[in-house]
Design goal:
The complex is a heterodimer of chains A (about 375) and B (about 575). Chain A is α/β, with parallel strands linked by helices. Chain A contains twelve helices and 15 strands. In chain A, the strands form three sheets. In chain A, strands 1, 2, 5, 6, 7, 8, 9, 10, 13, 14 and 15 form an eleven-stranded mixed sheet that branches. In chain A, strands 3-11 form a two-stranded parallel sheet. In chain A, strands 4-12 form a two-stranded antiparallel ribbon. In chain A, strand 5 and strand 6 form a beta hairpin. By secondary structure, chain B is of the alpha/beta class. In chain B, the strands form four sheets. In chain B, strands 15-12-11-16-10-17-18-9-19-20-21 form an eleven-stranded mixed sheet. In chain B, strand 7 and strand 8 form a beta hairpin. The chains are: A alpha/beta (about 375), B alpha/beta (about 575).
């Protein structure tokens, strides 16, 4: 039965080495993987919220108690994930490049009632990441790789299992800088594709008018999307209106990256944040995203420190894109920040205790969405054997 | 029919030739024994999917909580009033036993295939109820919840219940709640109804019922006033006339003023007036040979009691020429005296003394041992030897002491045996081809603890082992099946289990019973049927008694959880 590797060899005129295939995610050495990896300093002259008098922390528990039992603010939950595979090595023009495969899953789930949690939108794509060198003519790469994708999808092996690759992504074949690896470049392309899928789903929700002031979307991870070279949603600044009712929640952040207005680390303040308290909201811009996009961020403790393994476990970082001129000028309404915080506090249970080491920072609907996305993956063995 | 879930086959819990698992919504009401169907692969050369049928065995609720502690933490660290915005994700997973495939395909069902409720015809096909020959109604099955609920009549193959393929029924269940008697009466009614409706020259039936407690069975030809229209509908669905038994005769133990019975005086008098009730007696001349039956439950390891009975019945010593029970008693008493020289030297005085005590006790307690018959008085042996086709004899022994009850039961069985063995001068064609004996409290006569030498046990063993070919069928009921002699149980072709208790189901007799069946036996009112007549065990719902009864089953049936297989 037709496999992909011999076919690719033929199409791109390379030689494959039949190297060992494996899932990269399973081989990675465990390390701290922060969801925000950009250093940011808060704008000294700007407040992230309208209540400028708030200097220390604020207790949100009472607000959370008050709204308990009423319709929660968050109705939609978004999470994206990818699974990366090292498929083979291919020799092209006397250079060896890795062939990277991946499964991208992005799902938005809707909580219709406390007992009804359903998929709203799902994107599950199989992709490959090849070096740009694979297109030997290099004139119309997009067309070239689209044609190969089409042909791969018609291979009997894929037809048999009713599987399709959505795209062949390309990474630069340029000489590597010291410390750089082609493998990481290939993986980064897949990561970018996943981010693109997330933005696409947010756009779809907005287009369907599903997001409004009573029905927010809670997205797992940061909203700091760096600009892309291609794609319909390449710049966040162009699509920021889509994020009017979207909250980004980072459960794992690097506290050292957060600096206060005087440039000192916020880490101690975050570590000492009392239970159900939030920090004042800060405003910041970052060149990595775009200077036209302003973010409002704050931290909130949702678990008592006595139950957690570290002082940062149990604290979440909350982000919101400031959309209106008024928001950019004066910051987000403090009432809205309190309401968002209170709703997040009320999402604190059930917990993924015992099934996820990040339980103290996890919110259950996000956890469920992540589970759903991962349940849609085909098995590693199945994926690797397509090649 | 409605789709209710999908097959799940995992590494640890794969689908196999005889079982599969599927998930359902956590609020989907489904019961053990419900039949479900699964879309399965088509046979070679066909595009049409086959269908695999399964019977629900176990239902489990399952969440993503890995531990109890996670549950505690999820309730805001032990706050019982905490209400989360999102309920923990959960579902029910169901284990089902494969009972067949429409195309005979037993390849395990495939992951992700749809599972749906079955229709009436599907359920019949799945349980093999559509192939039953010689149909005899044995109950009904209620399946699923409204609006999908279905009701299915269940039939025995009568050849496996009353011969010739197999015979004898054993019913077990705790007292009062198991509906043992009701179920036995329902089957007897169905049999009588069938034989009355389909008259066949070669086949006929008659019944001998022993009433062993209260007044349960002394008005079986009277309609049940509590019977409602919905109960009548069930009888009609099963093809039975909702009318009480016919051709019934009642036999009460004789007593001077009024028979020894729990039945009401007026009722008995009325029955006697109508010529359908009689008092029975045991006359010395005719019945002296049966005295061995009085000692059936007496432990007799050295067989001295048996020797004495032989001594008396063969007329040895001065036992020849006696004319009544009192003379017999006096003669026995003589043997208890020291210095008597006419007796058998091998029987000790103490044995005679024991025999005398037991015999005198029975004679003192019961007036049925008499010298001659009066008006309206009969001998049971004679009556049974003249039993007619479709007759039902109800012999009331409820108020007799235990020894006398055993005596009467043994005597009745002996009479039936003699009749069927052709030892009576009667035309073969006039004798009912099958005689069904129903006895409750079978454990008194056929338990594992009954002495092996017991003549009643021997009689019961003979009937269960040879009765099928002779046309003697035993319907026995007892509280605990585990008490009953293995050969008696083993020779029954059909078994019905009513409600029982946890101790009983933990015994060896229930070793092969799956846990869910045990749960039903402990908790749900219904009758579980098994035996050669059925491909699978069935759990049928009891019907409301058609005849008048000492107590009402109504409240039980209203509260019962329907059925399943």
């Amino acid at each position: 039965m037709d496999k992909i590797i011999p076919f690719l060899e033929e199409q791109v005129g390379g030689i494959c080495y039949r190297s060992y295939k494996y899932c990269v995610d399973e081989r990675e050495v465990p390390s701290v993987n922060y969801e925000d990896n950009k250093l940011y300093t808060l704008q000294r002259d700007r407040y992230g919220e309208t209540d400028t008098s708030l200097k220390s922390t604020k207790d949100i528990y009472r607000t959370a108690k008050q709204i308990e039992g009423s319709n929660p603010l968050f109705r939609y939950f978004l999470d994206g994930s990818r699974r990366i595979y090292k498929i083979d090595d291919i020799e092209l023009g006397r250079k060896i490049f890795p062939i990277i495969g991946g499964q991208i899953g992005v799902a938005c789930c809707e909580r219709q009632s406390p007992s009804t949690f359903k998929k709203a939108i799902l994107e599950h794509n199989l992709v490959m990441s090849l070096p740009s060198e694979a297109d030997k003519d290099g004139k119309n790469s997009e067309q070239f790789f689209n044609a190969i994708t089409q042909k791969i999808n018609n291979l009997s092996k894929l037809l048999q299992y009713n599987l399709k690759f959505s795209k062949i992504l390309t990474y630069s074949s340029k000489e590597l800088a010291p410390g750089e690896k082609f493998e990481n470049k290939g993986i980064a392309k897949i990561q970018d594709e996943m981010t693109e899928c997330e933005k696409k789903i947010v756009a779809e929700l907005v287009k369907k008018n599903l997001l409004n002031q009573d029905n927010y979307l809670l997205k797992d991870g940061s909203l700091q999307y760096k600009p892309m070279k291609s794609g319909d949603f390449r710049e966040l600044s162009k699509i920021k209106s889509n994020y009017r009712c979207v909250i980004g929640l980072s459960k794992h952040f690097n506290p050292e990256l957060s600096k206060d207005k005087s440039g000192k680390s916020n880490a101690t303040k975050i570590a000492k944040l009392p239970l159900y308290h939030r920090t004042p909201a800060f405003m910041y811009q970052t060149d990595i995203v775009s200077t036209e996009v302003h973010f409002c961020i704050w931290y909130l403790r949702i678990r008592d420190v006595k139950y957690t393994e570290s002082p940062f476990a149990g604290v979440v970082k909350i982000e919101k894109v400031l959309v209106t001129d008024d928001e950019i000028e004066n910051g987000l309404s403090s009432d809205e920040i309190d309401l968002i915080s209170a709703n997040i506090i009320n999402e604190r249970s059930p917990v993924a205790y015992g099934t996820d080491t990040r339980w103290a920072n996890h919110l259950y609907p996000i956890y469920l969405t992540e589970k759903y996305v991962k349940s849609q993956y085909i098995s590693d063995l199945h994926f690797l054997n397509l090649f | 029919m409605k789709n209710i879930g999908k097959i799940v086959a995992t590494e640890k819990m794969p689908t196999t030739v005889d079982e599969f698992y599927f998930w359902t919504d956590k609020v989907r009401i489904i019961k053990p024994f419900d039949v479900v169907k699964v879309d399965h692969i088509p046979p070679s050369g066909s595009n049409k999917n086959s269908i695999t049928f399964g019977v629900v065995e176990e239902i489990s609720h399952f969440t993503d909580s890995p531990s109890f502690l996670a549950g505690y933490i999820s309730s805001d660290f032990g706050d019982v009033d905490h209400k989360p915005n999102t309920e923990r994700i959960g579902m029910n997973y169901v284990k089902a036993k494969v009972v067949g495939n429409t195309e005979g395909i037993f390849t395990p069902v495939l992951d992700g295939h749809l599972v749906s409720l079955a229709g009436e015809e599907d359920v019949k096909k799945a349980l093999g109820l559509d192939e039953i020959k010689n149909k005899l109604p044995c109950g009904y099955i209620d399946m699923y919840e409204p609006p999908d609920n279905i009701r299915i009549p269940v039939h025995f193959n009568s050849h496996f219940l009353i011969g010739p393929e197999g015979a004898h029924l054993n019913i077990s269940g705790i007292s009062g709640l198991a509906a043992k008697t009701s179920y036995a009466m329902f089957l007897l009614k169905a049999i009588q109804c069938q034989f009355l409706q389909n008259k066949k020259e070669n086949e006929s039936v008659a019944f001998v019922i022993l009433n062993v407690k209260g007044k349960d069975l002394v008005a079986i030809d009277e309609p049940n006033k509590d019977l409602e229209n919905r109960d009548k509908d069930i009888y009609e669905m099963l093809g039975l006339e909702p009318k009480p038994f016919t051709n019934v005769k009642y036999f009460y133990p004789y007593n001077k003023d009024f028979p020894t019975t729990y039945a009401l005086k007026d009722d008995v008098k009325s029955q006697m007036k109508q010529g359908k009730a009689f008092q029975f007696k045991y006359i010395f001349e005719e019945d002296k040979d049966s005295i061995d039956l009085l000692f059936s439950n007496v432990d007799d390891p050295t067989q001295t009691m048996e020797s004495i009975v032989n001594y008396i019945s063969t007329g040895q010593g001065k036992f020849d020429g006696l004319t009544n029970w009192n003379e017999l008693l006096t003669e026995i008493y003589e043997h208890t005296k020291k210095g008597d020289t006419g007796k058998d030297k091998e029987i000790t005085i103490s044995s005679w003394g024991k025999f005398y005590r037991l015999f005198r006790k029975t004679l003192d307690k019961s007036a049925i041992f008499a010298s001659r018959l009066g008006d309206g008085e009969v001998r049971l042996q004679e009556q049974i030897k003249n039993i007619q086709k479709n007759d039902i004899y109800v012999i009331d022994v409820a108020k007799l002491d235990e020894e006398t009850q055993g005596f009467v039961f043994g005597d009745v069985m002996r009479a039936v045996y003699d009749l069927k063995l052709g030892q009576i001068e009667r035309k073969e064609s006039e004798i009912p081809s099958k005689i069904i004996i129903f006895i409750d409290e079978l454990n008194k006569y056929a338990s594992k603890e009954v002495p092996k030498s017991s003549p009643i046990l021997r009689q019961i063993l003979d009937i269960t082992e040879r009765g099928c070919s002779l046309g003697i069928i035993l319907f026995g009921a007892e509280q605990f099946r585990s008490d009953i002699h293995d050969r008696v149980k083993g020779n029954c072709s059909s078994y019905a289990y009513g409600r029982t208790n946890a101790i009983e189901v933990s015994k060896g007799d229930y070793q092969y019973v799956p846990p869910v069946y045990k749960f039903n036996l402990k908790n749900i009112l219904g009758v579980s049927l098994s035996g050669r007549a059925f491909r699978y065990n069935l759990f049928v719902q009891p019907t409301m008694p058609i005849q008048q009864k000492g107590f009402s089953l109504q409240s039980l049936t209203q509260n019962s959880i329907p059925f399943a297989a």
